Each structure stands twice: as C-alpha cells, then as structure tokens.
Predict the 3D structure of the following.
Amino acid sequence: MNKTPFNYRKYAISLLFCMTSLFATPQAKQLLSPEDTLKLIETIKDDAIILGNGVQEIHIFIDPLCKMSQRYLKLLYKRNNEIFSEYTIYLYLNELKAKKSKKHILNIIHSESKERILCDIMLGTTNTVLEKIRDKETENIFQEISKVAKKIGVYKRPYIIINGKAK
C-alpha cells in the first residue's frame, strides 16, 4: 500500500487563502453608469480645483489628509509637464470620515488661492493656519461634493474617474 504523506504546507496555504477570501473587504463597485456619472460630475465641476489644460479630462476625489491622496498629488506635480499638457485634472475635495478633514477642506474651498492652500496642506510646503469657516456657500459646496461622491459610490481616496469609469 503506497500512501502519500499529508502535505501540511499545502493545506496551510489553502486554508489561509480560503480565510482571507472569506474576510476580505469586497471591492465596491461604481454605482452609476459612466454616462450618469459624467452627468452628475457636471453638477460639481465648477467647484473642482483644476490642474492642467489638456484635452482628456480626469476627475479625482481626494481627501487632503489621506496619505494616498497626498502621494498621488505629489506624483502629479512631479510629472506636471507631461500630465498637465495632456490632461485637465479636476480635483474634488471629499472627506474620508476617519481622517476628520472637514476643517481642512472648508479652508481650501473658502480660499482665494485654492491650489496653493491645497498644496500647503497636502504636500506640507508651509504651516497653514486653519480658520473656523462659517460660510454657508462653502458649506454647501462641501455638501454637494459629498452627495455626488455618495451617489457615484466613491469609497476610497484618491478615486479616479476617466470617461465616466472609475479606475
């Protein structure tokens, strides 16, 4: 009788794979069609911080205190000659609840030089003093972007949309 020895290593790897797939966070899906997503984005486009002037549009939801959003912005500025001539990038400030960045976002939205304050906060170029913003228009912009993000299904930052499709 020829018995094959039990392979504990294969068993452990298989068990680990099954457990991680059971407890893994499901990948959230974009809730709207690309066409509906673009229509909805049109409603907040005027509230975006715009970088570049290329033909192709990219829409990105970011949180100023999110490390991944900060890395992404740093990469954009590092490659700005290539990227900003090919693309127009629309940045929408959208809070991740865990980051508690509403005060930062309101300061950026309320600022006369949004891009400068955004870079100060996200790239740490200066120590920006944050004010308590009590402006109804600024608060409305914050709320509208949040509503659109929720309808689209924005679940991470940066959340990148090209041609209406999340990437």
Summary: Confidence is low (pLDDT under 50) at residues 8-26. DSSP finds seven helices and five strands in the chain. The chain has one domain: 34-166.
